Amino acid sequence: MASISSLGIGSGLDLNGLLDQLNEAERGKLKPIERQIETQKVKISAYGELKGALSGFQAAADALNDASLFQSLSTSVAGTSLEAAAGRDAAIGQYAIEVERLATAGSLASGRLEVELDQALTDTDQTLTLHFGNATGESPQSIDIDIAAGSSLEDIRDAINGHDGSGVTASIVNDGEGYRLALMSSETGESASITDMTFSDGFFADGIGFSGAEGAGAITQVGQDAMLSVNGIPIVSASNQVEGAIQGVTLSLTEEGSSTLKVEQDTRAVREAVTGFVEAYNALKSTIGELTAFTGDTETAGDLLGDSAVRSIEGRLRSVLAGGIEAGEGGFSMLSDIGITLKLDGTLEIDEQRLDEVIVNDQDALSAFFAGDSSTGGLAGQLSETVTQLVGSNGALGGAISGAESRIENLNDRYLSMEQSIEATIARYRTQFGQLDGLIAQMNQTSDYLFQQFEMMNAQLGRN
Question: Where are the alpha helices (DSSP H) in 197-331?
Answer without folding.
Answer: 267-291, 308-323
